[in-house]
Amino acid sequence: MKKNVLLGITGGIAAFKMASTASELTKKGYDVNTVMTKSAQEFISPLTFQSITGNPVHDDMFSPPEHYDIKHISLARKADIVLISPATANFIGKMAHGIADDLLSTLLLATEAPIYVAPAMNTNMYNNNIVQANIEYLKEKGINIIKPGSGDLACGEEGKGRMPEPEELCEYLEFGLTQKTLDGKKVLISAGPTREALDPVRFFSNYSSGRMGYSLAREASFRGADVNLVSGPANLAVPLGVKIDKVETAREMYEHIIKQAEDQDIIVMAAAVADYRPTETKREKIKKESRQDFSIKMEKNPDILKELSEISSPEQFLAGFAAESSNIEENSRKKLKAKHLDLIVGNDITKKDTGFESKFNEVYLITKEDSVHIPSKTKNELAAVIFDKIEELQNLGFSGSDNNA
Ligand code: PMT
């Protein structure tokens, strides 16, 4: 059944951004219901949300029902999650004091669903002691506050108070909606390429963007794990709740991973670690001079995953990836054995629309017992499939995938 997201929109100029948020959520397959305050309707028409979500927009406690339905109770009950965005200073004040004088403020007192609030207002209003005290009080009462961003504000000033962009709001909601099946677990993920310097301007690297590893870190964090991501150079936003160690070389990645390996319940190596590095890194830029060609001597980097397999305890779960250009299953299986892994994810890195850099990936999930082909999916969706498999193998709270819509 579709999960129900209730959007509560109050009267701020950022209300217009909620049209994209509602659209994004509807596209993702959620049943989106919208409740608007009277002042929100001064900024954007209810018809916009009705057209986007396909559901009627609610604003009135006392409108005659088509069939018997106490609106604030039925909406409150139906909601799996509630997002108040933009949340004005006035509405935050009402929430903090339990005031219920319209449909939105009333249903918030009736719902048992998790509530996320995205304050958006002028910087001085946001920094005002009373507003800050109200926000702190809401936090104490278990309301999730989404921090506003900084930048140009509609009032012409610059500073804190900007409502986050729709994609970020959706991330908070997906975080809130994901079952916390990895609660209490520690998960270490590696991502991205490494860079092995030749001189101050040149390095050896590969095409890894970090997407696959960041998607895995996101999924583990959304499932409630305490996640550490060790990332080579990547141009991606750090997923919600994830702690990051940024590294550059294979040896740095090795040090950061081995240092924290002992405490981890699950380790997944998605990084494309350089197997070799130049024996020497020149301090000065190598000049062209008159040479037609020249050779570079390389030496071996540590094999992080191999070493992890030697030091890990039997309770720890160890997964790797295999980047293959032919005989995917066979070659991946060899790596599974050689590195004593619980799981290896084999992918074909010669395909254009999957693997390196792409938003998509198509893989084989290979264990000692079996091999399952997973057709092309977004890396976020694939990360959910991979963690379902890990939970299944570990006999955790795997439920056949409420987390994997
Ligand atoms: O980052 P993206 O653009 O999203 O691309 C994703 C990906 C293609 C990089 C990813 O899906 C992937 O395949 N990652 C592993 C790449 C790789 O290095 O594969 P490998 O077959 O060379 O190595 C096997 C395993 O050993 C990997 O888990 C690797 O992290 C690990 N390894 C490799 C070398 C080394 N020195 N130390 C290691 O730990």
Please provide a written account of the structure.
- With 405 residues, the protein is α/β, with parallel strands linked by helices.
- It folds into two domains: 4-177, Flavin prenyltransferase-like (Rossmann fold), CATH 3.40.50; 186-278 and 296-394, Rossmann fold (3-Layer(aba) Sandwich).
- It is built from 14 helices and 20 strands.
- It has helices spanning 17-27, 40-43, 46-53, 71-78, 89-96, 103-110, 123-127, 129-140, 166-177, 211-222, 250-261, 304-311, 328-338, 379-394, and strands spanning 4-9, 31-36, 57-58, 81-87, 115-119, 144-145, 149-152, 158-162, 186-191, 196-197, 203-204, 226-231, 243-246, 266-269, 276-278, 298-300, 317-324, 343-348, 360-366, 371-378.
- The chain is elongated and about 80 Å long.
- It binds ligand PMT.
- Residues 192, 208-212, 250, 269-273, 275, 301, 303-305, 320-323, 335, 347, 349, 355-357 line the site of ligand PMT.
